[in-house]
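Record now logged underneath.
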Amino acid sequence: MESDRRTFLWQSAGLAAATLIGTQTVAEDRQAGSSAELLRWMSWMNEPVSSNLVGDKLAVRSRAKTDFWRKTFYGYITDNGHFFHLPASGDFIFQARINGQYAALYDQAGLMVRKDAENWMKCGTEFFDGRRHASVVFTRDFSDWSTMPDLSDTAPIWWRAVRKKDSIETLCSLDGKAFTSVRQGYFPPDEKVDVGIMCAAPGPGFEAVFDNLKLDTGYSLSSRKI
């Protein structure tokens, strides 16, 4: 968890829940009434030190020496970051608003879309060079990394992941209304995936806060509005 890498900060706007959860269905194209309702359908991959839901805000304390990364430049594989997720199929939009007490190198919190250990995307705020950065990682066996200055040094950020056909587009916003496209990349099509929120701390651990989660699987690609 040493060396340089990605920075995640992004906060997203609203979403309607329509996904399959095991054998139980959250009726397709139907809205989850609140962020807290959607969070109740989700489960952890790699549980954090703690996670506390207060209203519709989820506060997560990450474990130390955690991260998501595969091979590129550093040579190691790390897959022990925290991912709170639910399954989704086909095209969808997932978004959340995210903030954290970013302080140590590579503290990170954001969104993740994951097919398996070799195929995933994460985006959000990451801390390095003494400040927050917006960061995106696409992984197809080997991870890559792109960054830009964060939209704010202190404010929560909305992040949005739009999956359509064979791609995922990542976007961020300060107000949850006007979104800026950050990156688009290939992602295997026609595969059931897990989507949700993630955080990790290659250093001593830190606290991240997530709210305004929404999942929309019933939108029209021909009339996308971002």
Observations:
- The mean pLDDT is 86.
- The helical segments are 35-39.
- The longest strand covers residues 119-128.
